[in-house]
Design goal:
By secondary structure, the protein is α+β, with helices and mostly antiparallel strands. The protein has a single domain, classed as Double-stranded beta-helix (4-Layer Sandwich). The chain is about 15% helix and about 40% strand. A hairpin with a 5-residue loop joins strand 1 and strand 2.
Length: about 260
């Protein structure tokens, strides 16, 4: 039996989850905290590292865990294994509004490069590593895109991204400019670099960032409409101050009305 082959169903629209169907002894790995529910005959085991080469010895496990640490992820993954009879299920939930994208790695030469924090779960045997962008400009100014994750193997992997996901196929030499935070994933042949927006007015007043990702084909790229960083910034900007209230929200005077009313919070 090839344990990299799993059946799945994506449930929901804007707040999606993925239901994985496991045959006996099949297993799936996932980030800690992504579990929504599971059948009782699906066991849980904490894995130190990226989920591969668990028989490689102490140093091999430390090395794989260190790679995950560089991406800001936990040192541990969780493996879910069906230890009973018949078909059983385990469900993983997305952490914020968006879409779950399934990748059959056999269709992409065994490798997908994706934004860190986007990995949700995968068939056991898929390696979750890091992909450094080699160019100095990308390293200095790439922001969210500097250190990316790479998913390698011959099984299914699931990535989550915010808002709506757009898949684009780039022809050889075709170039696309993308906000660095909106880039979700790309195939191994796509060239990724960082370019300066240019123009003093764009730099000072554009509001779109000083740099953008330059993607050159051939290959496929996946782009999200709502990066989590953008969502978080809007939430913080709209949140009331500590201990304060939003009595004026929705009125014509807004915050000024609160000041006139004596609300200094």
């Amino acid at each position: 039996m090839n344990t990299n082959e799993i059946d799945y169903k994506i449930i929901g629209d804007d707040m999606q989850c993925v239901e994985i169907e496991l045959d006996p002894q099949e297993a799936v790995i996932a980030e800690a905290g992504s579990l929504m529910m599971k059948d009782s005959e699906v066991s849980m085991q904490t894995i130190f590292g990226d989920g591969t080469n668990q028989d490689s010895g102490v140093f091999g496990k430390i090395f794989s865990a260190g790679k995950r640490l560089l991406t800001g992820e936990s040192l541990f993954l969780t493996a879910y294994t069906h230890i009973g009879q018949g078909k059983k299920h385990v469900v993983f939930a997305a952490p914020f509004p968006g879409k779950i994208v399934p990748f059959d790695l056999t269709q992409y030469q065994g490798k997908i490069i994706c934004q860190k924090d986007s990995f949700l779960c995968a068939a056991k045997g898929v390696a979750v590593g890091i992909e450094f962008q080699k160019k100095i400009g990308t390293g200095l100014f790439g922001g969210e895109g500097f250190i990316m994750q790479k998913l390698e193997g011959d099984g299914l992997a699931f990535v989550h991204a915010g808002g709506t996901i757009i898949e684009k196929t780039l022809q050889a030499g075709e170039k696309l400019h993308v906000d660095t935070g909106c880039l979700v994933a790309l195939t191994r042949d796509v060239n990724y670099d960082i370019e300066f927006v240019g123009g003093i007015k764009n730099t000072l007043f554009g509001g779109e960032g000083v740099f953008f990702a330059s993607l050159t084909g051939p290959g496929k790229v996946w782009i999200q409409s709502l990066p989590f960083s953008r969502l978080a910034n809007r939430i913080v900007a709209s949140a009331p101050s500590l201990g304060g209230s939003r009595k004026g929200e929705g009125s014509i005077l807004g915050g000024l009305g609160g000041l006139l009313d004596g609300d200094n919070s």
